[in-house]
Amino acid sequence: MDQLKLTSTNLRTFPDFLRNQYRLSYLDLSGNQIHGEVPNWIWRLNLLEDLNISGNSLDSITVVSKDMEMFLLVKILTIFTAINFLCNKFSGQIPAEVGGFKSLYILNLSNNAFTGAIPPSLSNMQKLESSDLSVNSLNEQIPAEFAKLTLLSFLNLSNNQLVGRISHSTQFSTFPKSSFEGNKDLLGPPLTTDDIAAVFSPQPMSNGRRFPNSGHDQIIGML
Known about the structure:
Helix content is about 5%, strand content about 25%. By secondary structure, it is mainly beta. The protein has one domain (about 5-210): Alpha-Beta Horseshoe (Leucine-rich repeat, LRR (right-handed beta-alpha superhelix)), CATH 3.80.10. It starts with a strand and ends in a 12-residue tail after the last strand.
């Protein structure tokens, strides 16, 4: 078995039988009631590339632990291509280590409770094509290093607490204003004066959580 989809099946914990599914490359556990921490053994599934745990009640995750073998750490950072943690209860700062996922092309951390600055290390993910960090409580300025992500075609930073001026880089000029709305102290094109003053109204989701109607589909397709 190399692909497994257990969506909306009322799971409350990670199924224990997954521990030994070393051939899995795709795992979708979205839309369940799984709570607590993402177990460390999930990273020991040697072929796992795409992980979707969106729409649960997870609140913590440890990617790097003190007892993790170096070869396993290298595997995690070089093989994963898509991560979707949409609509959970993750909080605190986004770990700088996330920037070590060199092969990642989809990163969705929207609709959580992340705080603090966006790690500049995310600019190290040179293969990143889609990044959704919307509907959190991220603050400070958008890292100028994001302009280095030349393959990035979708960016959603809306509904946070970001401040300062949006980069004038060629890369950032390709994103619509919906990518930045809902940050009242964020300035510069593509936002207008009216956009800056307005509070972007989120739309309700069927599960009671909310996310912005950005004009883009949420990126969960590969996960």
